[in-house]
Amino acid sequence: MAVVSRGFQGRRRQPGAGLVPPGQYLVDDFPVLSAGPTPDVALEDWDLTVVDESGAVVARWGWKAFLELPAEDVTVDIHCVTKWSKLGTRWQGVSMDTILGGIDTAAEFVVAFSDGGYTTNLPLADVLDGQAWVAHRFEDEDLEPEHGGPARLLVPHLYFWKSAKWVRGLRLSDEDEPGFWESVGYHNYGDPWREQRYWGD
Amino acid sequence: MDTSLDGNAAAGVLGDLFVFDVTVAVSTCATCGDARPVAELRAYLDAPGIVLRCASCGAAQLRLVRSGDRAWLDVRGIQVLEIHGATTAE
Amino acid sequence: MRWLVATVAETVPETARVVTLRLDVPDWPSHRAGQHVDVRLTAEDGYSAQRSYSIASPPGSERLELTVERIDDGEVSPYLTTEADLGDQFELRGPIGGWFVWDGTDTAPVLLVGGGSGVVPLRAIMRQHAASGSTAAMHLVYSARTVGDLIYREELEALAGPRRAVTVTLTREAAPDWAGYRGRVDAGLLAEVGWPPSVQPHCYVCGPTAFVEAVADALVGLGHEPGRIRTERFGPTGA
């Protein structure tokens, strides 16, 4: 039993009162969690690539072309596996239905890959049908580098480690390939409403 | 922008796992071959887990995730760890 | 490593933002100068927060001392610097870290470079040097913003002696009567007050990340062997 320190309260954290998944609490700020240095990529060098299950590059956009894709305003709740949640966060991004639409594939899985080597895996079905975006603006401003800018994946129905920061592409795959965190203890799927944080949950 | 600390800052957490002070052990990076004490790796402690990266090439040498009574440790990024004074060989 | 209970025996304001806590920690094993502890605070509802702090006292001190700088939007430092009072308790574990330590087992000169609260573990090393009667030459270069930000000022002046030197540089002091150095610790200052690389001094650099990186780069640029430079980054905010 830990010793309680008189008068210590810690950061304000509100229980979710049914608005957030089990075990989560609401925060006012936007915590930054990073597994590596913040990449520093010039926009003229940036691209977003889609590779299909045969290894072929089937789509690629430079920054200008990416910004010309139809973008949407989305307001979503986000839930981090480290237990903080933010409700009603506002993003602008390109729907993954736009990114992957028109690509002929039988793949069931996708691996998102980022500058700095981070990867995360998802069932393809979980990034289609209006469930995911490549987001480049947050709360009416360009997405800051520490939060994943210039662009990050946004998959709000799963724990936020799946919303890969600094995303540079998507690799379609017949096999499920656990990514950076999924291969060392974090749940392969990560549904916050079933509290799937770790292997075996 | 880099928020990393020295591997020495991870000594407390790693001390829960290793019976010796792993931060003074010398790690050879499996990616680039750079060898230096774990205390000199770049430690990212503000992540869903702990990541120690090679100070030379940036590859993740050690990843640790903890959950209550379980922990997962991936050290595929370490080619070999040289440990002094902690063995009871012979 | 198990958590021990620390009881606050005394609080010593060092500067407007910095407080030293003198702690009674039963069962405290000995430690080495330069090591740190993890401090854990637990609230009534079970919520806990944890931070690392360098040990400010040398081995053999009557009480374990931690010197904490208050970070305004921090979670632990505001409690330790403004709320914690005599008799209050929290948990800590340690000593931690076998790399950023000085035991005085060899006689090579030692260059200590601290920025802001980075002086804390270096003060423990200086006090250990004094207590042990080491014959190694030791020089502390300490960078702070203003005179009012100098931690341990009188103590460091008193520690200076034939084998221990202290050089202070202030980066934002406006008062004209400051007779010490002004400006950041750079290659010029290090070359002037430190030892040439041929002497192969041990170098310890501690403080905010940007400070540590600039100083370490400067030392390497002057020709010091990277393997003889030990660093302790405190993070972007410096504490």
Task: Give a nutshell description of this structure.
With 90 residues, chain B is mostly beta strands. Chain B has one helix at residues 11-15, and strands spanning 5-6, 26-29, 35-37, 42-44, 50-53, 60-67, 70-74, 78-82.
List the helices and strands and how they pair.
The complex is a heterotrimer of chains A (201), B (90) and C (239).
Chain A: E1 14-15, E2 25-26, E3 47-51, E4 57-62, H1 63-68, E5 72-79, E6 84-95, H2 96-100, E7 109-114, E8 119-123, E9 133-138, E10 141-142, E11 152-154, E12 167-173
Parallel strand pairs in A: 2-6, 3-12
Antiparallel strand pairs in A: 1-2, 3-4, 5-6, 6-9, 7-8, 7-12, 9-10, 9-11
Chain B: E1 5-6, H1 11-15, E2 26-29, E3 35-37, E4 42-44, E5 50-53, E6 60-67, E7 70-74, E8 78-82
Antiparallel strand pairs in B: 1-4, 2-3, 2-8, 4-5, 5-6, 6-7
Chain C: E1 4-13, E2 18-24, E3 36-42, E4 48-54, E5 64-69, H1 77-83, E6 89-96, E7 110-115, H2 119-132, E8 138-144, H3 153-159, E9 164-170, E10 181-182, H4 187-193, E11 202-207, H5 209-222, E12 229-233
Parallel strand pairs in C: 7-8, 7-11, 8-9, 9-10, 11-12
Antiparallel strand pairs in C: 1-2, 1-6, 2-5, 3-4, 3-6
Largest interface: A-B, 25 and 24 residues
Number of domains of chain A: 1
Largest sheet geometry of chain B? 5 strands, antiparallel
Compute the separation of the termini of chain A in Å: 25 Å
Which quaternary structure do these chains form? heterotrimer
Mean pLDDT of chain A: 95
Helices and strands of chain A: which structural class? mainly beta
State the CATH topology of chain A.
Sulfite Oxidase, Chain A, domain 2
Q: Write down the Rg of chain A.
A: 17 Å
Record the strand order, biggest sheet of chain B. Answer: 1-4-5-6-7
> Helical content of chain A, roughly?
under 10%
